Amino acid sequence: MKRIPFVALMIVLMLPALAAAEDGSAGLAFLKLGVGARPIALGDAYTAVGGDVSSIYWNPAGMVAVEGTDVGLMHAEWFQDIRYEFAGGVRSFGDQAFGVSLVGLYMDDLERRDGPTSDPIGHFGVFDFALTGAYARRLTNEFDAGVSVKYLHEKIDDELARGVAVDLGAIYRVPMVRGLSLGLSVQNLGPQMSFIEEKFDLPVQYKGGAAYATPVETLKGDVLFTGDVIVPNDGDPKTHFGLEYEYDDMVALRVGYRGGWDNQNISFGLGAKVKGMRVDYAYVPFYSDLGDTHRISLGFAL
What we know:
Number of strands: 16
Shape: globular
Number of domains: 1
CATH class: Mainly Beta
CATH topology: Porin
Strand content: over 45%
Strand order of the largest sheet: 1-2-3-4-5-6-7-10-11-12-13-14-15-16
């Protein structure tokens, strides 16, 4: 069997840290990286929020709240020249919805070394992606459920790992409190995968969340409060919170907070809507020498 380059091995070990999973031992840590600048700006607290294409990732049950067709793209600039992309679409038919998405993380022109030498012996790349198909259905006036299936692929140099995973989700709209919804999701359920000769678990995450949206006449807009509790299979529980103010369904300001992480907590974001098109931006600073991250999303309601 071909020996994996020294630097490639280091990248495999570093990916959980790059995904802010510093206490993590599961593989394919890129699956923990959220999609959509709006959810990221809201502190990744999006389990109980639906109605756009990013629901494919956060909670497939949220796809039912899409009106017609919603298409979205995202580009993320990470530290160390790491890039993360998302493209997806959801089609809703009233009481059910279908979605498909592709996420990918990649790094190019990495120096190949077989040890701590001064000169590289070549270059190689890293490419991870997940192709997802999702389905959701409205079971009652208050309750939606969804499921997604993912094909997983990781390539470092010429070495490959492949696998499958399933997400499950539900959203309940509390009838006694208008604007309040509760969400549950389980992400990345699946069998162990193998890279070279090493087996590893998928990064399973159990999430529970709440979201409360209400109009505020004095502010001429709407306010959204969100909160999630996340229990990963490879670390301690985390708490995430988000706050959004949207003026006249046109411009939004967002802030989020992540509790329980070692190298990040607060996030900020902006959003704008123009004739069915959404443009969103999120900024997440990291409190280490790694650097900061930026995400830009485009959404189209068709």
